[in-house]
Amino acid sequence: KKTRLVALTGASNILGTRPNVKTIATIAHEHGALVWVDAVHLAPHAVVSMKDMGVDFLGCSSYKWFGPHAGVLAVKPQILQRISNDRLRPMQGYPHPDRFEFGTLPFEILKGITAAVDFIANIEALATGEKTRLSRRSRIVRSMTLVEQAERKLRKYAERKLSEIPEVVLHGSKASVRTPTIYFSVRGVPCRKVFSKLASRGVYVGAGHFYAMDASDHLGLGTDGAVRAGIMAYTSLDDIERLVGGVKAIARGD
Question: What's this model's pTM, rounded to 2 decimal places?
Answer without folding.
Answer: 0.90
